[in-house]
Write a structure and sequence with these properties.
By secondary structure, the protein is an alpha+beta fold. The chain has a domain at 19-246 and 357-396. The protein contains 19 helices and 21 strands. The protein has helices at 29-40, 45-59, 95-100, 119-130, 135-138, 140-148, 154-168, 176-182, 198-210, 213-217, 219-230, 237-241, 269-279, 290-310, 321-324, 327-334, 440-452, 458-463, 483-491; strands at residues 17-19, 22-26, 69-76, 79-85, 150-151, 194-195, 246-248, 251-255, 258-262, 355-361, 366-372, 382-383, 388-389, 420-424, 427-435, 467-471, 474-477, 495-498, 507-513, 519-523, 530-533. The protein has a seven-stranded antiparallel sheet. The chain has a seven-stranded antiparallel sheet with strand order 7-4-3-11-10-2-21, covered by helices on one side. Strands 16-17-18 form a three-stranded mixed sheet, with helices on one face. Helix 1 packs antiparallel against helix 2 (45-59). It is globular and about 60 Å long.
Length: 534
């Protein structure tokens, strides 16, 4: 991939990082260094990814935790593997139960949106199949930070304060452990302040020693079950014991001579591919033009319209992947785009979402990995004396009867977290990704087009001001987005909103490898990220 390491068209305080032997890029510098430490100890990119992921549950609890889900794309020995480690709804969680409680949509807090967590299972599965080191060695840095403590980084301290504000008003018996765990001083920790969690360290130690089985069939599972029973939750020990991650075949489209890879549903990486398929039939003269932004926005709107209709757990719903990704269908959708903003509607092809990290080692292996508790701290529930913050992924289920993503026991919900990967002519180019709920497919689109259409280096692609389609004709723009282009987009019928100063439109990471084996990494300027390399 051709790009200039000396050109940075957007305000930036970072440069591309180059290295040869290994690289870890993620949103918190201590976690990136933990992954690099494992590489230096003889681990590969998979070992480094798991070490970084586990460390992020400690040093960035505002975005992920042991009680969340995970997805991964792994490039190993010239082949790309996909892992879906998202969990299903508990057997006792039914639409009838919510109806009895007078609910018309899934709540975001408490026990009802808690699905089976898949992150620990992902760690064990990845290390067991592809790792070079033992899980006890890989989780050691995370255990050390949880036990000895670490100084909270600036952006995370702001998010922590927002989480405290959210759960303080919910203060009550089932949320009490969140406050005890994450706000023991009666407030969120400040930037630079030391925070430690011995209970989190003990849990990580149990996971390391049991190959994560303690979470699903041991003492930790029993504690989760007891906590759920105490407060009327649906998650049971039997739900945990029956859980297994799933290896899946990644899906892709060709864009500008590169294969852009995503995982298949229940994640919404499909949305990125649908939009790229539409844009593949267009040419762009320059990035900073209203025409370019307009076409990108219209493509993502159409892609989301289809995604929100069809994406669901493919084990329980028919997801017409082949038809949706057909070039003829992309051409049909492309014809809908004109000079003015359109109201997106789903098509009918069947007639014919956190923390993100990227790793690479000197042997050519690379990992694109993402895990999340969703909406910051997730459900607001922390299993007593464990440090396990439980996610709220079930809130993405639909309660509309007959909807593809309708709630059902044992079914996985529509999932927002997605890892991405680029290859060319069967060779790895590298992992990329961005966290941020429904921003993610839009962030993937903006990263890919910035690099492949406009030749931006990985750091510049991350520096560029982002946009986010919200709904209907409404688009949100980050500070720094060109005002004259915003005005022209408005004239084209887009309802323009400006994101608040502290609101990020996703946080991403990119690692690319060239034909000589040199690694080039970029990290997110919107957070406390780092590229650790050697």
């Amino acid at each position: 991939m051709d790009f200039s390491a000396l050109e940075y068209p957007y305000p930036s305080r970072r440069s591309v990082v180059f290295a040869k032997n290994g690289m870890v890029a993620t949103s918190q510098s201590l976690a990136a260094q933990a992954g690099l430490q494992i590489l230096r100890q003889g681990g590969n990119a998979v070992d480094a990814a798991v070490a970084t992921a586990a460390c992020l549950t400690v040093v960035e609890p505002t975005s992920n935790g042991i009680g969340g889900d995970a997805f991964a794309l792994v490039w190993l020995k010239e082949k790309l593997y996909g892992l879906n480690s998202s969990g299903p709804a508990p057997a006792a969680l039914t639409p009838e139960l919510l109806k009895q409680q007078g609910l018309q949509q899934m709540p975001a807090d408490g026990w009802l949106p808690v699905t089976v967590p898949g992150a620990p299972a992902a760690w064990a599965e990845l290390i067991g199949r592809f790792g070079k080191l033992k899980l006890t060695q890989v989780l050691a840095p995370a255990i050390e930070y949880a036990e000895a403590g670490f100084p909270v980084s600036p952006t995370i301290s702001r998010q922590w304060a927002a989480g405290y504000k959210r759960f303080k008003v919910l203060e009550g018996s089932e949320f009490g452990c969140w406050l005890e765990t994450f706000a023991p001083a009666g407030r969120a920790p400040l930037a630079g302040e030391i925070w430690r969690s011995p209970a989190h360290a003990n849990t990580l130690r149990r996971l390391a020693e049991s190959n994560c089985q303690d979470f699903y069939q041991g003492e930790l599972a029993r504690r989760i079950d007891a906590f759920s029973l105490q407060y009327g939750g649906c998650l049971r020990a039997s739900d945990l014991a029956g859980y297994r991650p799933e290896w899946v075949e990644p899906i892709s489209v060709n864009y500008r001579g590169h294969a852009v890879w995503e995982l298949p549903p229940n994640g919404h990486g499909l949305v990125t591919l649908l939009a790229l398929n539409i844009l593949q039939g267009m040419q762009f003269d320059q990035k900073e033009s209203a025409e370019t932004y307009h076409l990108h926005i219209e493509a993502i709107k159409l892609a989301f319209a289809d995604g929100l209709k069809y994406i669901a757990d493919p084990r329980r719903s028919n997801v017409p992947l082949k038809e949706l990704l057909a070039s003829a269908y992309a051409a049909e959708r492309r014809q809908l785009i004109g000079n003015m903003a359109l109201q997106p509607t789903a098509g009918e092809p069947v007639k014919g979402g956190t923390v993100y990290l990227a790793t690479a080692d000197g042997e050519g292996n690379m990992v694109s990995y993402i895990q999340s508790n969703y909406m910051g701290f997730g459900s607001g529930l922390v299993v007593p004396e464990t440090g396990i913050a439980l996610h709220n992924r079930g809130c993405n289920f639909s309660l509309e009867p007959g909807h593809a993503n309708a709630l059902a026991p044992g079914k996985r919900p529509y999932h927002t977290i997605i890892p991405g990967f680029l290859t060319k002519n069967g060779k790895a180019i590298g992992p990329f990704g961005v966290m941020g709920g429904f921003v993610q497919p839009q962030g993937h689109l903006q990263m890919v087009t910035s690099m492949l259409d406009f030749g931006l280096n990985p750091q510049a692609a991350l520096d560029a001001p982002r946009w986010q389609w919200l709904k209907d004709k409404t688009v949100e723009l980050e500070a720094g987005f060109p005002l004259e282009i915003a005005e022209e987009l408005s004239a084209r019928g887009h309802n323009i909103q400006w994101a608040s100063e502290n609101l990020h439109l996703g946080r991403g990471q990119i690692i690319l490898r060239d034909e000589t084996g040199v690694l080039a990494g970029g990290t997110e300027p919107r957070t406390d990220g780092a590229v650790a390399a050697w």
